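Checked the freezer inventory, then went back to the computational side. Two predictions to log before the end of the day. The first one is the construct we discussed on Monday; recording sequence and tokens without edits.
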Amino acid sequence: MHRRGHERSASAEFNRVDRTVRIHNSTERLRSELLNYITNRFEEFSSEMKQAANMPSIDEIIERPVMSNSDLSSINKIDNQLSAQTIASKQSVDIKRSSSAFPTKVFRMRSSIMTELLEVSHIKSIRQIFISILVLLVFQVALTDIFEKGTVDFFLFDLIQWNFSNLSQCLRVWFCMFMSTCAIVYYCFHFWAYKRLSFIPVHSFDSTDAEKLKTNSTTLLIFDWIWFVAYCCYVGLFLYIPVQHILAENYPIVTRIIILAEQVRFLMKTHAFVRENAPRAILYGQIYSEEINAEDLSKDKFNDASNEQKAFSIPHTPCPEFSKFLYFLFAPTLIYRDSYPRTSSIRWTYVISQLAQFATTTLFGYYLFYRFCLPVFRHFNSEHVTLKIFVLSILNCTLPGALFLFCAFYGFLHCWLNAFAEMLRFADRQFYSDWWTATSWSSYYRTWNIVVHDWLYTYVYRDCHKLLGVKYRLVSMYAVIFLSACVHEYIISLAFGYFYPILFIQFAVLGFISMLILPQRTQNNAFNVFIWASLFVGLGMQMCLYSIEWYARLNCPRYVNGPLDYFIPRSFFCHDGGEIKTPLTNNLPNLVLHRQTDL
């Protein structure tokens, strides 16, 4: 009876939270439907009143004089102009309707799922269990060091000190990337958006201006292509210069990951800003040249009741203000909007709590590496190539790999992003969904990191789908997975200093094949077990193979010389003896390389 009472209380609390979420979603949906209904009714009432006010009487229609030849010629000109405007407006409406076939990102005020789940006392106790495990494991390592060596090496944090030894240089590189994004991207886009208006003449249908209109159209096309090439060159230089600097200065792993991750984030933000605002600048130019009537676009916008996203808008300026771009650079989203839902105030106690939990999960990750990777793989030599030790190493790494996954999820996707969202009063906190209930890889990819998934869906999948068509939907889907796998491998390869595409093969090859084989929509719990088992084994394999290759490059001589050594795994050709060359870790302290502790 006591157990049943606990189960009933847990079920009641879960039902209360779930009912609260459903009520909130229903309220938001009802509010949106009411606003759409009121807007449509108001537009219908306005159009009826306008028609009633402009309706002539029957006597006026009968007494209306016959039109002259000059009136007929003027009407023909107006008719030609209206027909051109109608064609342009229909093209814009077709573009809008084709884009509305894909759902767009809707930002609204909502909390993260973990924030809502942690309000339940039974879920909160799970977090307390992880904290107690961390405390006990830290004391275990400390007592082991005291009894075996008489000192506590764990609290020296020499590995962390080495990884952050050049933090000031890392911050300077980040500041240079930030300033280049602010100064070059925004102000060059601002110049392009306003300068192209000077090449757009006011639309005219006289035969004498046809040649001038054609010349200006050609000049505008050349002007746009020049700036497109300049944008591609900027992206290439933004990728090359930071990478060349961190390789020349021999940055440690963590600072490399920080710079590379921020480099990718700035590029994704830049592309989102340009991709969202370039069509608006072009549409503004068409309205400026009177090729498209703004009133027709407004009517089309309000008449399209199915467009719940409200993403289509008439631009009032060719380029948004700098303050909106600056807020977007720090906002925890990769989808550009002129405005986002905001909270009323900042809860600084909540910010401090989230940052403290992020630091705790970082300490937990450091312990996992110190306890499970460093003692096992630091003395790697040719005997580790045997199949027995290889399989056992992968199986032994599944548990710490899974814990690394939980640390990355809770530390970054929940604590770090929620802390920045609270400081910026960013109200939409849906950075992830219930990925732990996924029964297919496609569902896991969509719900694990919603921030990145929204960017890939909006700016990669939709554009590829529009260019290639419905027949090549599978190609568009693989383009998303391939690009994501390439970016992940780009960061890992440059951070570790060698190309070892384990993650790329698991992500872009095995993951995509599993997406095609496994059912996409199923509620069978066996598939959820398969997803969890695949994650654990895959993470254990990554942790094992990347660690083996890292220490093989410390303890084994080169197999080939030159740039080819970067692409050939040294662990495949490791032999006992020989000269040990460590070009990537000259600054790594001897305490990390030669500490005599074991499992």
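The second is the one RB wanted added to the comparison set:
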Amino acid sequence: MENTEESATLRITPTVRALSSALRGKRDDVPESSQLNGDRVFPEPEKLWFKESSAKNLRNRDFLSPTTMLNTLYADGQIPPAVMSRVLSLRGSGILPVAGGEVMGEGLRVRVDRAAAFKAVLAEGATEYLKPSGQRQGCVVLNCPALHPKPNTPTPETLTLGQLRTVLLADHMGALLRRQGFAVSYCPTLPEDSDIFTFLRALGIDWPTAPPNWTNEEREEKIQEALENSPYRERETERGRRTSGGGGGGGGGRKAEEGENEEALRVNLKRVFQEEGLLGYDPSLGTCTVHRDSVSHLAQMDLATADSMATALHVTSCQDEFRQQQIAVLWRASGAANTQRHLVCGPVKTPGSHLTAAQFLQLRRGQMKEASEMKYGDQVEGQTWDDIIRVMTSATIRFELLSTVHTSPVTLDVQREGGVSTKGPRGGVFVMYNCARLHTLFDSYERGVEKGLYPEIPECSQLDFSALKEEGEWLLLFNYLITFSELLDQSGQALDCEGGGARVNIKTEQICKFLVSLSKDFSSYYNRVHVLGEPLPHLFNQMFCRLHLLRALRELYHSALDTLNLPPIRQL
């Protein structure tokens, strides 16, 4: 599914791999005493080196091979000169250039040629670092059971916070997968005049719609017929031999459905997943009575996958997981051969109260407006501020529901006096505020250019990046700009994994955590460093190097926020 071209773009993973290869060396580089030790176990290459990330450790090293690893490779941890020479002279496509290294108490430290790395990354605006390392091929349908009619189309007043979490996660996953090259579609299609569509639009979610009078009856009839003719359909004689303990249409209603009239269409789901070799499905899935809303759900899936053998990724809450497993196995019983995976979200808890999705949005929007008025006063009025509050509210809700590992519960503060603040290093407001600070910085610079205070920013090739000596500058490049493309790769890689059952676990929280961490480190740097200095020629080189770095950082914010379908706030 992957089509990756070799690139000179600097990456962490190839660098660690090359360092590991250089350190392991050829066996003739190892002293004879080490070779004769038959008990020596050589570690896996990816465990030999660690990328440093803390500001404290980055003061003296960028990569570390711990003493325990060196002792495993070489007797008494003594690195042969030939091996050390190979490590220190490491060069190659995509590999961070090594400036030096030394063995200390904690292990072998390696330092990167930082000036060369700054120049290489910031050339061409760091565009290669803002996209996945490779483009993938394939089609994915993101199915959100919370939005399917049961039998009526859900409304903002009936949508639970747990279901809202699944919708936001599906929206985020779609943006991530598109960035990697996948063709992405969403299921189900919503009526364009529905309240739920308007609600989703208020959160920045662009879900597919159909005209109000549109129907999918032809596909529903096709699915109904396929299930009636399915080899897994339970005939009357088979039902008569069974007890009432089989699986049903959902949760506690299963036994009751066994008592329905004998003409009801029933499918033996257990036979389906056993005979089709489907792994990871609940063993209590038994006989399922097929209801109209199930047929409607399957017809929507059939429509979404009509033109491709797309992978179906069902994004569902833990409360609805059993029901969605029934739907998935029913789809297989109808003849669908698509790969199906389940991304299951933990519950959303609101201690002391119970809110619907509509009430939660109303609460957060009101809190955001109040917080903005307290900070900015009477200027908070008009369409511009309405748009800002809408985006900031969406950012707040997305970060609250997406910053936690998707299988874990989320606990929300929904007290009227809490939940939203324009201050403090947490959540979407903090991220959007720091993105806006970068826009303000460049607006100030452009005004300085117009006044003749500063010249235009020269190309990277004309600058000496050894002027970037402040520890926060290297931290921003090394921990964020260089690592972002590999972060984008992870969701597609998780879908590629074969086996392991119906569930798929994807690190969906990482973009939000990345942005919050980036904002903390940028804010700390920006509060310490005066970027736009006096308009004196001898200060321009350092100022322009910093502006190149911060311009790339601004684009990094845009790229990461885009995966959350959040437009940047350019002024606060």
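For RB: The longest helix spans residues 537-562. The chain has a mean pLDDT of 88. Let me know if you want it refolded.
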